[in-house]
Every structure is written in C-alpha cells, then in structure tokens.
C-alpha cells in the first residue's frame, strides 16, 4: 500500500480506538457512581496491577511491555479523573525524581502538589489537602531515606503505605550551548554530580566551574538562563524549563534506582503478588532480635528489606523496619506476624500493597 493509504488506515484505527475509549469512559463513570455510593476509594492499586499484568500477558508485540504500560497508565489516569480528581503530594520542586514518581504512578490527569519536605507531604495528606503522598524511601546505591521511616514511628501517622514505585535514576546534561566545548559552568545537585563524575571528567573535563544546586530542577532553571552553562538534570525538568538535552544517560551506574512509597488511607486487598511493610521492637536482651526474626523463617516468608532506626527515647534502643513478600491477610503471613508478636514489644503493620516491578 502507498503511504497515503497506510495513513488512511491509521486514521480509521484511531477513530476505532477513540470510540472504544469513549465506551470505556462511560463504564468508568458508572464505576465512579458505584464507588461513591459504597464510599470506596477511587485509587485501587491492586486492581491496576491486575490490569497491567493482564495486558502485558496478552500483548504479542510489536509494542514492548514498557510502551503498553505507559499508554495504559495515561488511559487509567484519564479514566480515574472521570471518577474523581486525585490530588497527589510529592517532595518538590517540580521536575525532580519525586515528581517523576508521582507521574509514573498517577499519570498526568492527576493534580500534583509539590511539598518542601517529607513531613510536609505527610501533613498534606493527613489534613485532607491531598489524597495521596509520594515519598522516597530507598535508593539502590545510597541506601535508606531515614526521614521517611521516622515519620511512621516518631510522628505516629495514621497513614498507610498503599503502593510503591521504582524510578530509574537517569541523569542528563541540559544546556542551550551547541557543543560540550562551549560549556563554562555546570549546575548540579551534589549527589547528581557525584553519580555522574566519571562522565563529566571524560567528556567536559575538570576545568569547568561546578556550582551546587539545591535540586536537579533548580539546576535546570539556573542553566536555562545562561547559554554558556549546563545542568545535570532530569528529562522532566528539561521539558519544564525548556532547556534542551545535549547528552542523555550520563550517570556512571546504569542500575541505580530509587524506591518511592505511596501513602494514603487505602488498604489494598491482595493482588496475588504483594509486599507488606511493618515495624516492630524487641526487648534489649541478647538473642531477642534473632528469636523474633525466626518467625519468618518458620513460615517460609521472604524478607526484602530490614532497617533499624533509633527510638530517640532511650539510648541504644531501636525499632526495626522490614518488608516481606505477601499480604498480611494471607494465611501464611498472618501466622508469621502472630509469631513475631509473641517475641516483640509491639508490631505495627504499615501496609500491604502490590509489589512493584
């Protein structure tokens, strides 16, 4: 077929897709009415996981799974907005990895609110000014984010963890300069610079002036105003501040990623592949922690994270945060948590939620 004929075929398919989306939208509106009557939460992470898994299993190509997920993420975001406008707080400013995590989980049809600090994110959700919050909790190279964990045991928040999302740490060089040789100044968050040091050394050199920025977003904003400067930043900040990317993926480690938690008042039902986050404390005696942790070995429960934090009440006393595979409503996990309670001062379930890919 000729190019013109192929384009006519694409136009016809687009019309069919739009018609199907309209039909789906009408059904979603009915779902929204049902949720309103039953006071059901409009964001259902377990349902969304099942949708993505079904679509990826049915996909026969040539679209890769990542493309299918991205397309349907936006479809779900737009459909969800027909039920209710979801307000999402994230660690700001706009253009950061936290902003990207919020978009990855909730899509562009959600109302995003940037907060200055992690406690501010929690506060916005607790006050009802946001429906959900997105906060960083763990980085694959830098480790745990203590401020997030401390919000659970120090502040006694009522919020639960209802989802998680992983964001690859991708650094890019953004600039209005035409070549690398034209760059005289480099704006960068210290951590972003440290994670891209080798690329900068090999491609720009050590003579360029490096100026610390408070965030990747701020770096892009500063570099956008000076044609002889550049920024290490995210692709979303590049778009936000209209500064072109001269080089992409300049990070030294291609495997670095950050895990974010979605906090809210949801308590997702089992999805078939879940994770449960808890924190607990044991008596300050020899062997106490070993006896408590044996509960998971006894019931064949896999741990994916363990971290200790000081109680800040008495010296050398700690609470322990752990992630386990499984939902707390599953019989095997229930038995393990009950045994854990027998060897602990207290056990608090922070949430069971679909495990992210």
Automatic annotation (TrEMBL):
Its main location: cytoplasm. GO terms for molecular function: chorismate mutase activity; prephenate dehydratase activity. It catalyses: prephenate + H(+) = 3-phenylpyruvate + CO2 + H2O; chorismate = prephenate. Pathway: Amino-acid biosynthesis; L-phenylalanine biosynthesis; phenylpyruvate from prephenate: step 1/1; Metabolic intermediate biosynthesis; prephenate biosynthesis; prephenate from chorismate: step 1/1. It is found in: Cytoplasm. Its EC number is 4.2.1.51. The record marks 258 as: Essential for prephenate dehydratase activity. PROSITE patterns: ACT, CHORISMATE_MUT_2, PREPHENATE_DEHYDR_1, PREPHENATE_DEHYDR_3. Pfam families: ACT (PF01842), CM_2 (PF01817), PDT (PF00800). Residues 277-354 form the ACT domain. GO terms for biological process: chorismate metabolic process; L-phenylalanine biosynthetic process. It is an enzyme of class 4 (lyase). Residues 87-265 form the Prephenate dehydratase domain. Keywords: Amino-acid biosynthesis, Aromatic amino acid biosynthesis, Cytoplasm, Isomerase, Lyase, Multifunctional enzyme, Phenylalanine biosynthesis. GO terms for cellular component: cytoplasm. Residues 1-87 form the Chorismate mutase domain. Catalyzes the Claisen rearrangement of chorismate to prephenate and the decarboxylation/dehydration of prephenate to phenylpyruvate. This is Bifunctional chorismate mutase/prephenate dehydratase.
């Amino acid at each position: 077929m000729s190019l013109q004929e192929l384009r006519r075929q694409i136009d016809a398919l687009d019309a069919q897709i739009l018609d199907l989306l309209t039909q789906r939208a009408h059904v979603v509106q009915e779902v929204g009415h049902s949720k309103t009557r039953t006071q059901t939460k409009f964001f259902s992470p377990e349902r969304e996981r099942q949708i993505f898994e079904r679509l990826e299993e049915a996909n026969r190509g040539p679209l890769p799974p990542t493309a299918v997920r991205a397309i349907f993420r936006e479809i779900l975001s737009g459909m969800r907005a027909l039920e209710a406008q979801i307000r999402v707080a994230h660690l700001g400013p706009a253009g950061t990895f936290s902003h990207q995590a919020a978009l990855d989980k909730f899509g562009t049809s959600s109302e995003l609110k940037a907060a200055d600090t992690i406690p501010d994110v929690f506060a916005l959700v607790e006050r009802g000014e946001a429906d959900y919050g997105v906060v960083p909790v763990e980085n694959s190279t830098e480790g745990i984010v203590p401020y997030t964990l401390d919000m659970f045991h120090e502040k006694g928040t009522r919020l639960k963890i209802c989802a998680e999302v992983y964001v690859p740490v991708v650094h890019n060089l953004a600039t209005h300069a035409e070549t690398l040789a034209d760059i005289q100044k480099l704006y960068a968050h210290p951590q972003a610079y440290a994670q891209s040091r080798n690329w900068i050394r090999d491609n720009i050199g050590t003579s360029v002036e490096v100026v610390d920025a408070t965030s990747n977003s701020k770096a892009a904003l500063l570099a956008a105003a000076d044609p002889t400067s550049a920024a290490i930043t995210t692709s979303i900040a590049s778009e936000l501040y209209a500064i072109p990317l001269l080089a992409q993926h300049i990070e030294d480690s291609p495997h670095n990623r950050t895990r974010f938690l979605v906090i809210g008042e949801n308590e997702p039902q089992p999805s078939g592949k879940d994770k449960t986050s808890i924190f607990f404390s044991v008596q300050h005696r020899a062997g106490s922690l070993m006896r408590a942790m044996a509960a998971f070995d006894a019931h064949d429960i896999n741990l994916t994270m363990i971290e200790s934090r000081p109680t800040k009440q008495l010296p050398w006393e700690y609470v322990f945060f752990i992630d386990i595979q499984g939902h707390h409503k599953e019989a095997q996990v229930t038995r393990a948590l009950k045994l854990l309670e027998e060897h602990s001062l207290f056990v608090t379930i922070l949430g069971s939620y679909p495990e992210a890919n």
